[in-house]
Amino acid sequence: MRRRFGVISVTVSLLLCGCAGTAQLGGVTSAPTVEVPAAGETVPVATQLADAADDPAIWTGANGVNFAGKQLPGIILGTDKKAGLYVFGLDGQSLQFLPDGLLNNVDLRAQGAGFVAGASDRGRMGVALYRFTGEGELKPAGFVKSDVAEPYGFCMGRIDGTLVAVLIGKDGQVREYALTDDGTTITGTERKRFAVGSQAEGCTIDDATATLFLGEEVKGVWRYSLRGEPGTRTLMAGVGDGRLVADVEGMTLLRDGGQTFLIVSSQGDSAFSVWDVSGPAGRERYIGRFRVAAANGVDGVSGTDGVDAWSGPIGPFSRGLVVMQDDVNEGGAQNFKLVDWATVRARLNL
Predict the structure, then answer these.
(1) 3-state secondary structure (DSSP) of residue 236
(2) Contacts of 212 (CB under 8 A, 6+ apart)
(3) Which of 94, 183, 214, 266 has the fewest C-beta atoms under 10 angstroms from its C-beta?
(4) Phi and psi (nearest 5°) for 337?
(5) Within 10 Å of residue 151's Cβ, how many Cβ atoms?
(6) Which H/E stretch holds residue 248?
């Protein structure tokens, strides 16, 4: 990831003026972009004056979450890549902090009454694993050592009943691991390895179709089949047509009715591009783009790294929730912003 401070300042100016539309950035014209209001935010991460907050992951159960003795509508995991892993409530307050060091990206999958979470760990060089049983707090549950040069991107999935973790090195080397949980410790065995080609980070897995969506930062979004030969891929969307402005960063999937939407951080112009990826490779449908503007006492979003979404009701968000990292948080260290999916879908005329 490369910061483009000039680009960020232009985008912040657009947000402050309340404009929508196109912008000229480094010779690339952004595609038409709508604005949506910020609905909330987390408290800042503790690391000051640094690019520290990185990636979120959202969770709730059928009846909310009993976390640390509190009944909550949902929780948000969020990494401080200089210090460790946070658990926030939907009100943005910190519920737990695990000081586990250089954790970059985080993801999770349901397991029993709770979930298993994993994070790319640049300090110990692998995948740090955690468990939430449905009550109590998040607890360490294992570690998978990797040979990638610098663990960077990370996502999880459940493919044909097997829990899998995909780890991306900063140089674009990818490892897929099958995870085994004996109820006490989670371990991992390598299943596949391949190379993207250059720096990559953002990824997300569609469990239903065994599809890995992966962002090569200066190239675009690749679509891989996790059932196919390692490295078999198609370029779903490229940088350069205004829909994606490098760097391509975080990405997430959200299901709404019978459709599956892919949301991708277009970091170079502080926007998010959306595709309907319900169909097979080659049949994706571009929907549009949105930016997050200041509202409800919360500043707008710029230069996003990680993004996650929850499909369906969670707390006050009746259609779903999108959470993204904010690079320049007004008045404090970096944090995560919350956006109501119902507002996004209305602005994009879905």
Answers:
(1) strand
(2) 155, 157, 166, 203, 204, 205, 223, 224, 225, 226
(3) 183
(4) -110, 150
(5) 28
(6) strand 248-256
Distance, in Å, from the CA atom of 293 to the CA atom of 18, rounded to the nearest integer, reads: 7
CA angle 315, 39, 21 (to 5 degrees): 135
Neighbours of 209 (CB within 10 A): 18
Pick from 64, 116, 72: nearest CA to 94 = 72
Amino acid of residue 140: P
Indicate yes or no: pTM above 0.85: yes
Which residue in the block uniquely carries the two structure tokens 């319900």? 278
Decide if 264 contacts 349 (C-beta within 8 A). Answer: no
Sheet containing 285-293: give its strands across.
Answer: 34-37, 285-293, 271-276, 259-266, 248-256
Residue 239: how many other CB atoms lie within 10 Å = 21
Q: How far is CA 340 from the centre of its chain?
A: 16
Domains belonging to the chain, first-starting first, are 5-347 (2.120.10.30)
